[in-house]
UniProtKB/TrEMBL annotation:
<dbReference type="InterPro" id="IPR004027">
    <property type="entry name" value="SEC_C_motif"/>
</dbReference>
<protein>
    <recommendedName>
        <fullName>Zinc chelation protein SecC</fullName>
    </recommendedName>
</protein>
<dbReference type="Pfam" id="PF02810">
    <property type="entry name" value="SEC-C"/>
</dbReference>
Length: 390
């Protein structure tokens, strides 16, 4: 913990102004180097910035950052944590915290809404007086309504890209409008999307689709092309609003009865380490979304040094994982499970979605023979004959 706090502190100091704290925007900008001013001007899309001298940059930035429209557009796309910090600074313009995560204020600092100072061993997060004054000139009722709208659209984009991998903008709008009273048209949505993606997000627009950020990585380009071919003409699985928005959390997945059954078997027969088994189940579910093979899934056991006591036990686990696979929501099936796709009538190709994991052979499985009087490998502390060997 001490090492982690030291790392946070050093990162914060690296980007802080060294010297006495001030809350005057003009004085803060005077404390910045020309390089920092130019970077700030670039983040704010200040026109003519490349030809400006330091004092000209300071004057232009002061005018730009205190402009009410600029402030509102910058605040509309803040995250919840960033907005909480901004609200805290409205009440108390200087906060002291050496160990604050840089991610909490990085965006705000890049837009000139907050700055950090390091003075006499203390880190201070500062809101300039002029920014606070500009904020109180906003139409707050209108601003909060707009912010709630942008935040909800952002949640829906995260949820749909996590569930589908890729979705057409018109289908996104259709889902959103079916589940919300305040309607989106294409023009308003594209404007919101452009604002949201003016900062780094976990999604982007690619090949006419809104896609998950993973698919935009250079090493994932072929995977994206393949996905777009595979999803063509397939229907979308559309859960109810409450369930769909759970997918905004990148770690969320549906804990199906099949996963529950697999977990119970592993806990009873292979390992009593609940935390390890939970991680195993999480990784198996993720592997199934990526169309894993039986060998891929067995490796999730091997890398945790979980061994089978017999080929019969391995076969049981593979059968359980086969059920998990066929009831896991997958990008290539537009959020449907292979089982659901196999049930869609009148389409032979879709029936082929349901699959059986290939059976294991002895070379794929690590089987450990255990003496009846040896400690049980499940971790219970009992002898094997008194536990899983019964």
């Amino acid at each position: 913990m001490e090492d982690y706090n030291e790392m946070l502190e050093q990162m914060n100091i690296q980007h802080a102004i060294i010297g006495d704290v001030t809350t005057s925007l003009h004085d803060i900008l005077q404390d910045l180097t020309k390089v920092r001013l130019s970077s700030l001007a670039s983040a704010c899309n200040l026109p003519g910035r490349s030809k400006m001298k330091k004092q000209e940059l300071i004057e232009a930035l002061t005018a730009h950052m205190t402009d009410v429209e600029h402030l509102q557009s910058a605040l509309l796309i803040t995250s919840s944590l960033e907005w909480q910090l901004f609200e805290s600074l409205l009440r108390q313009p200087v906060l002291q915290n050496n160990f604050i995560s840089i991610g909490h204020y990085w965006y705000l600092m890049n837009r000139g809404l907050v700055f950090t100072y390091f003075s006499e061993g203390q880190l201070y997060i500062v809101m300039p007086d002029e920014i606070k004054e500009a904020y109180f000139k906003l139409d707050h009722e209108k601003y909060h309504h707009q912010r709630a709208g942008v935040e909800l659209v952002h949640e829906y984009i995260l949820a749909t890209t996590h569930l589908y991998g890729a979705i057409e903008p018109e289908k996104f709008i259709e889902i959103y409008n079916a589940q919300n009273s305040e309607q989106l048209d294409q023009k308003r949505f594209l404007r919101m999307f452009a604002d949201l993606t003016s900062r780094e997000q976990a999604y982007t627009l690619e090949s006419g689709y809104i896609v998950d950020g993973y698919l935009t990585l250079e090493e994932s380009q072929e995977e994206l092309k393949a996905l777009l071919l595979q999803i063509k003409d397939k229907p979308l699985f559309i859960p109810k609003r409450e369930e769909l928005l759970k997918y905004a959390d990148e770690d969320y997945f549906e804990m199906t009865p099949q996963l529950t059954k697999l977990r119970a078997y592993v806990m009873k027969e292979i390992s009593r380490d609940a935390e390890m088994v939970d991680h195993l189940i999480d990784d198996i579910q993720l592997a199934c979304t990526m169309q894993a093979t039986s060998g891929d899934l067995i490796r999730e056991f091997e890398r945790r040094e979980l061994t089978f006591q017999s080929m019969e036990q391995a076969d049981i686990v593979v059968a359980l994982m086969n059920d998990v696979y066929n009831h896991t929501r997958q990008w290539i099936h537009r959020g449907h499970t292979p089982f659901e796709m196999s049930q869609i009538a009148g389409n032979v190709e879709l029936r082929a979605a349901h699959r059986q994991l290939s059976p294991l052979n002895k070379s794929q499985v690590s089987v450990t023979k255990i003496g009846r009087n040896e400690p049980c490998p499940c971790g219970s502390g009992f002898k094997y004959k008194r536990c899983c060997g019964k």
